[in-house]
Amino acid sequence: MVPCVSVAALSIHRGKQDVLKDLTFNIPEGRITGLLGPSGSGKTTLIRALVGVQKITSGRVNVLGRPAGDASLRHDVGYVTQAASVYKDLSVVDNVHYFGATHGCSRADALEAVDAVGLGGVAKRRAEDLSGGQFSRVSLACALVSKPKLLLLDEPTVGLDPVLRADLWTKFAAMAAAGTTLVISSHVMEEAGHCDSLLLLREGRLLAQLTPAQLRQRGDTPDLELAFLRLILADQELHSPGVREEAS
Question: Where is the ABC transporter domain (predicted)?
Fold first, then answer.
């Protein structure tokens, strides 16, 4: 079976800086893949590469069997950035209908997407009059309206209270169960437990691709944050100059 996302030897340089370094991985369809790592590890750059809006230095990125950014993927890939991409002077449903119209979606489709993110009760309210948690979900509805096969979300739960975060993860799980592939970035390791698979990044390198259970096993602890920290420390020891000199 062709994976939903296939990345081979992907490297991205920005000036003299290596932002991503020789990444290779596959993402299966209908799963939630968590993209985890500290701030500055390259998560947003990688998501942009999967969308096809990031210039890559070398390597290959395929999405749904086609090169990332191919025009034919326009209706199949949804992207939610960290900054909300909505018009504050429009109502919730008008925002979603506006973005949906570019995909040939109707107002009924827009209302369905609004309901899917729990904003049906405020569908006619202007975006600027929403609470912070409601406002952030408008962008998600805009991305969902075209029913994308792949949904990429860049830290969608930042700034949300625990109840809203839990509600969104419940919705993400339902979407995956219905066949949507989700790639969700976060720097909060507790959210890793909601994912089927994890891509762990540090300083632009892929430390590991594994399940939450495998991460706990490798870190020898049920605490995912501590397990990731132990993985980082082991990687530092492996790549430190002192270790290489001693081994040579």
Answer: 5-228
10 has which bridge partners? 23
CATH code of 39's domain: 3.40.50.300
Q: Which two tokens stand for residue 158?
A: 């930042």
Do 156 and 72 fall within a single domain? yes
Nearest-angstrom CA–CA distance, 195 and 211: 8
Is the pLDDT at 1 greater than 70? The verdict is: no
Please say whether the beta carbons of 197 and 27 come within 8 A: yes
Kindly state whether residues 140 and 156 are assigned to the same domain.
Answer: no
205 strand-pairing partners: 202
Domain enclosing residue 111, as ranges: 85-147
Q: What secondary structure, in 3-state letters, does 1-37 show?
A: CCCCEEEEEEEEEECCEEEEEEEEEEECCCCEEEEEC
CB atoms within 10 A of CB 16: 5
Specify the residue for token string 């590890």.
41
Q: Identify the residue with better confidence: 73 or 237.
A: 73
Read off the DSSP letter of residue 48.
H
Q: d(Cα 80, Cα 85) in Å, to the nearest integer?
A: 8
pLDDT digits (tens, 9 = 90+) for 140-151: 899 889 999 999
Look at residue 49 and give its three-state secondary structure.
helix
- Run of H or E including 96: helix 92-101
Tokens describing residue 78: 């949804």
